[in-house]
Each structure stands twice: as structure tokens, then as C-alpha cells.
Amino acid sequence: MAGIQINNLSKFYGSKEGGAAVSGLNLDIKDNQFVTLLGPSGCGKTTTLRLIAGYVTPDAGTIRVGDRVVSSADAVAPPDKRGMGMVFQNYAVWPHKTVFENVVFGLKLRKVPAVEARRKVLDTLAMVNLAGLENRLPNELSGGQQQRVALARSLVVEPGILLLDEPLSNLDAKLREKMRVELKQLQRRTGITFVYVTHDQAEALALSDQIAVMHGGELQQYGSPDDVYRRPANKIVADFMGIVNFLPGTVEPASGAAAGGLVVAVDGVPVPAPVHGTFAPGQPVDLAVRPESVRLAGYGGEGRGAEAGRLSAVVTDMTYLGNLVEYWLQLDSGTALRAQTHPLERFSIGDRVGLSIDAADCSVFPRAAGAAH
């Protein structure tokens, strides 16, 4: 087993003036980790995976596996010499071959003796919950079972690293959720380093030890699921990692027990968000607030607004989602935001509510010049 070190990796398609598919990427993937490359279409995540696999030659930078350089602008080790397996989005199983014949193919290329090969195939099929299905053809399997065949074919050759290119995107929602659990358990059992590509934030959060968020060919943040969700490095990451409200505010000196610090004033209400030293009083900022960090309460006539540390808003719409209710709200200033509450906390469209924010779970970003207030 070995980790992957990516240093200053760049890949251009067409002219350099047209921009890089991947630009100056630095990434340290530790051995025995589940690492996800996450981002929207065109962000460079699949190109990065293909560079790691050896299907694409970099224009600059290097990729190391352990102590060995496997990719540089001068030389690229072929995919079959890297000790890696690859699982594709479309499964890529042979429709005319049985499950056994699909999975044993790589062992035959390596001239593994037939008895040993059969044992390895049956053991691997059991590992991916396909025991007893070795004689079936792919058209006799469900989509999830076909994906397991693709996994087994990669795992049977005992790779040190497994690369997965959006392998669950063709499955329905419930099967996708089941396969997430199976993939994570499989990675823990085998100890193989998984590098996984997806555009699905929930998938990345559920599966990963580390997430590399990419945008425009550049790495925006590399960290644990908790870090990238709760402590995003910038507005791009905050906006991509699920639903977020950006509330316009202004940095102000704190008063009372927190005197000497800074707060963010939103609609005149001080929010004790984590304002670090690079911000200055009077600076316009955006407060990033997740819907689950918004607390709603009935709005009484007394002790409200800045005096009570609560904002005032009107419910403009609502959606019942079973395990939660999502509300669309409008602050007195006209700013819109979303909140999520327990289904037993019910409000009606048109209700005026008091609104407080769990400030510790918020992030503060400078507001871009010319941004809407």
C-alpha cells in the first residue's frame, strides 16, 4: 500500500490562454484513506483522476506513489504498471461474459493459475455480496449488482489504490445510499486507498476521510468532511457544500461581556460570529449560515430585535420534508433566507417569527466590491 503525492500538477486542453483543466494542484493522499475529489462539472476532478490513473499526461508537475514518480511532463508509467484499479461510471462490464468471466479477466492477463484464480474470484465476489451469482450474465443483474461486478473486477487483482469515477451516478436514490455504506465498509475491510470522484456533496460527506473541493481547475479546500462543511475556506466552498444563506452584514465592535472583540451586525442585530483579525470595524461582509443553524420562535411584542439578540422575519413559503420542515423567510431588510426545523416546530405562511443564529457554526467572508446588499 502507498499514498499519492501530487505536486504542482497542471493539464491544459488546447491553448494555455483558454485556461487549465487542472492548475497547480497539490494534494497529499495518505495510505488507507477514502479521499473524494468533489466539484461541479468542468472543475477538473475527472481530469485529475485520469492523470492519477495514467490515462492522461500532465503538462507540468508530478504524481508520486510512495517513492516512485509515476507521472511527469517527461514520462508516464502506463496504467497497468501503477498497481491501481479503476471503476468507471458506466460499469464497463462485458455483456456476453458471465460474472465469473468478467471478474477473472485481470487474473488471466497476469497468468494466475486457474485454481488460485477461481479462489480469488469467489472470495472477491463474496466480499462484494455477489456470492452464488458467478454464472449469471450482466443482463440478469440489477444496476447495483453490475456495479459490484465492476468493483470485484478491480479488487480481485489486489490493487494498492482504487480509483472510482462517479460509480453510483446511474443508480436510483435508495440503492445509491445502500451502495455508499457498502463502499465505505469495503474500503475499511480491504485497507485500500480509495480516490473517488463525484459532484454529489452528500455522497462525499458520507464516504470520505478527506474531501478535495475543486472549482475552475483549482483546489479550493482539502480537509475532513466536517471541516469543508462547517469551516469552508471561501465562499465557493461554502456555496457548493449544500444549502447556505449569505446574509449581508457589517463588522462592529462587540459590547458587554464580549467587549474588545468583533461581531457581525445583520439588520442591526449583533451576531457573535467568528470574526478573525483580518476584518476591521465598518467592513461589509457576508455571514454564511446553514439552514440548520437558524432557530425560529414565535414573535412576541416585547424584548425583540437588537435588544434580545434576535432578528425579525416573515415566513414566505414552507416545504414539509418528513424529517424536517424547510422555511423560506424574509428579514425586515428584504434579505431572503432558508431555515430547517424539526417537523413539530410548525409555522404558517405569513407568520412573523423571531430568528436567532447559532453563530459558532457560521463563517464570515469579505463582501466583494459591487456585490448586492
TrEMBL record:
Q: Which UniProt keywords apply?
A: ATP-binding, Nucleotide-binding, Transport
Q: Which InterPro entries match?
A: AAA+_ATPase (IPR003593), ABC_SmlMolc_Importer (IPR050093), ABC_transporter-like_ATP-bd (IPR003439), ABC_transporter-like_CS (IPR017871), Mo/tungstate-bd_C_term_dom (IPR008995), NA-bd_OB-fold (IPR012340), P-loop_NTPase (IPR027417), Transp-assoc_OB_typ2 (IPR013611)
Per the record, its GO cellular-component terms are: ATP-binding cassette (ABC) transporter complex
Which PROSITE patterns does the UniProt record give? Answer: ABC_TRANSPORTER_1, ABC_TRANSPORTER_2
Question: Per the UniProt entry, what species is this protein from, by scientific name?
Answer: Ancylobacter defluvii
The primary site where this protein sits is: membrane
How does the record classify its membrane topology? Peripheral membrane protein
Query: Which stretches make up the ABC transporter domain?
Result: 4-241
Location in the cell: Cell inner membrane
Q: Molecular function terms in GO for this entry?
A: ABC-type transporter activity; ATP binding; ATP hydrolysis activity
Similarity annotation: Belongs to the ABC transporter superfamily.
Q: What is the name of this protein?
A: ABC transporter ATP-binding protein
One Pfam family here: ABC_tran
